[in-house]
Design goal:
It is a single chain. The protein has helices spanning 45-52, 74-80, 96-106, 113-122, 138-150, 168-183, 195-201, 219-226, 273-282, 297-305; strands spanning 6-14, 20-29, 34-38, 60-65, 68-69, 81-84, 156-160, 187-192, 204-209, 212-218, 229-235, 252-254, 259-264, 287-294. It has 311 residues and is of the alpha/beta class. The protein has two domains: 6-224, Rossmann fold (3-Layer(aba) Sandwich); 228-294, 2-Layer Sandwich (Alpha-Beta Plaits). Helix 3 (96-106) runs parallel beside helix 5. The two termini are 24 Å apart.
């Protein structure tokens, strides 16, 4: 496999109070992938991004950007990286076009009006190019932040909660933009509270909890390895309780006794479903309908964050 475009080794952040925001994180990001970093508030997502982007100083550890140490060659690292932070920080009285063009100039890039125009068009900002920043809505300001991060043509783009507080239309526009960027070879690392973003877009998922990276896995492999399946039965007649002879299936009685739920391992050679249905038939318990459901990434995420299965 090719050398990772971003390699993080032993990255720690500890404060004088003794709080460890990051606990020796090791992580490789592959060139051209979309990597989603998931975790609750305070888990260390923004701290990790801020260290890699040179905003926060690490207590220990090394980051290699395309094989080069990000401390020894800071200018190279910052040129390769674009960051869209959570906070909306822009010059309130500058027009959109000037704001984005200036971000490009900050990195010493030659003027390229066609490239800047394309970014603004991709983000539905071209019609707002002469509007000053303070007159834009929150969603439009978020689009400008992304345009600024892309202005110097970075190879690695960090999106820290990019769709927090934006409408559904903008979220879908951003998803489409992220896919186009990946097609152009940009490597994208995003943090998000919206599990559907990771499920929709990510190639791999990392889950961070209390400063510790507890799992990194290809999204599809993660869902196959940890995903549960559920059998939902709509009963012909409601039950007041699950009969004791069905205890081995650990059934859950829901919706006022009208539905039974059986959780099983979809990969197992024997799921237990035929024997369950036979036992129900013997007891005279009929059902009107049944369906199976596979766990979503959100189900898996909640399990892991609350100390559930990792292996």
């Amino acid at each position: 496999m090719n050398e990772p475009i971003l390699s993080i080794r032993g990255l720690r952040k500890a404060y004088k109070s003794g709080t460890e925001a990051l606990k020796a994180v090791d992580l490789d990001i592959h060139r051209g992938e979309i990597f989603a970093l998931l975790g609750p508030n305070g888990a260390g997502k923004t701290t990790l991004i801020s260290i890699v982007c040179g905003i926060v100083t690490a207590t220990d550890g090394v980051v290699l950007v395309d094989g080069r140490n990000w401390r020894d060659d800071y200018r190279h690292a910052r040129t390769r990286i674009g960051l869209v932070p959570q906070e909306l920080t822009t010059d309130a009285f500058e027009p959109v076009l000037n704001t984005v063009s200036f971000s490009r100039e900050l990195f010493g890039k030659p003027k390229n009006s066609a490239y800047v125009e394309q970014i603004l068009r991709d983000l539905t900002l071209w019609d707002k190019r002469h509007t000053i920043m303070k007159e834009l809505s929150g969603g439009m300001k978020r689009r400008v932040m992304i345009a600024k991060a892309l202005a110097h043509e970075p190879d690695i783009l960090f999106l820290d909660e990019p769709t927090a507080g934006v409408d559904v239309e903008l979220r879908k526009d951003m998803w489409a933009l992220v896919r186009r960027l990946r097609e152009r070879g940009v490597t994208i690392i995003l943090t998000t509270h919206y599990i559907e973003e990771a499920e929709e877009m990510a190639d791999r998922v990392g889950i961070i909890r209390l400063g510790e990276l507890i799992l990194v896995e290809e999204k599809n492999a993660l869902m196959q390895k940890l995903g549960r399946k559920e059998l939902h039965l709509e009963l012909a007649e409601p039950l007041t309780a699950v009969p004791a002879v069905l205890d081995e299936w650990d059934l859950k009685l829901n919706d006022g006794g009208t539905h039974l739920t059986y959780t099983f391992d979809g990969k197992a050679e024997r799921t237990g479903i035929p024997s369950l249905l036979a036992a129900m038939r013997d007891l005279g318990i009929g059902f009107k309908d049944l369906e199976t459901k596979t766990s979503s990434l959100e189900d898996i995420f909640v399990d892991l964050i609350h100390g559930g299965r990792i292996a």
